[in-house]
Amino acid sequence: MTSMTSMTRLTFTFLVCLSSLALKPVVADELTIDFTYERNVNIGSISPSLHLAPFADERGVADPNTIVGDDRAQLPLANLIRDAFEQGFNKGGVEFVAEGADMEIVGTLLSSELETVDRAGVPNLQLTIRTAIELRGGGRSIWSTTLFGRGRVPVEEGLGSAVNASLERLVRELLRDDYFLLELE
User: CA–CA separation, 59 vs 102, rounded Å?
Assistant: First the structure.
């Protein structure tokens, strides 16, 4: 009977150890997103002074650094998006002011979704970042839109590359919007 008790204890100990390994909290992958806006930008002449407000995150996730699922960036995703827009405007010769601006650009991160899609037989990561942009002036909304930054990269390039492609697309979509640019003249 003692051999049966020791066998039961051994089995129990083994199962406890096994369950502690299996139930160990999952550690999310943290990606370093190092985005640089490289495209040429022709914004034209902007007469009002501009302020780029901090971007809000309305995705309803506990961790603002979350990109999708358990994957997270080194900074909040909304901050990375704001920084990408700032780079695009700076590339076009626009400098933002901290105070006393005639107009303000306000952004809200609405969603971030990842899919694996087939592009001509090549599996691709497709990250779609949906962001609301509003141009405000004189205490009212002058112009608003929702941008869809859809970045696609081959799976082997990884999520970090998909984030960069998505950020590039967001900035490009805004800086090519004629109605937005007309409001800035």
Answer: 29
- The residue type of 73 is A
Range of the domain at 54: 29-183
Q: Is residue 100 part of a domain?
A: yes
- CA–CA separation, 81 and 150 (whole Å): 13
Q: Within 10 A of 157 (CB to CB), how many other CB atoms are there? A: 14
The enclosing domain of 125 has a CATH number of 3.40.50.10610
CA dist 127 and 113 (Å) reads 6
Classify residue 14: in a domain, yes or no.
no
Classify residue 140 as left (phi > 0), alpha (psi -120 to 50) or beta. beta
Number of structural domains (the chain) is 1
The answer to whether residue 34 is domain-embedded is yes
39-56 per-position pLDDT tens digit = 988 887 888 999 999 999
Task: Give yes or no for a contact between 148 and 130, defined as CB atoms under 8 angstroms apart.
Answer: yes
Q: What is the pLDDT of residues 128-168, one digit of tens each?
A: 999 999 999 998 999 999 999 999 999 999 999 999 999 99
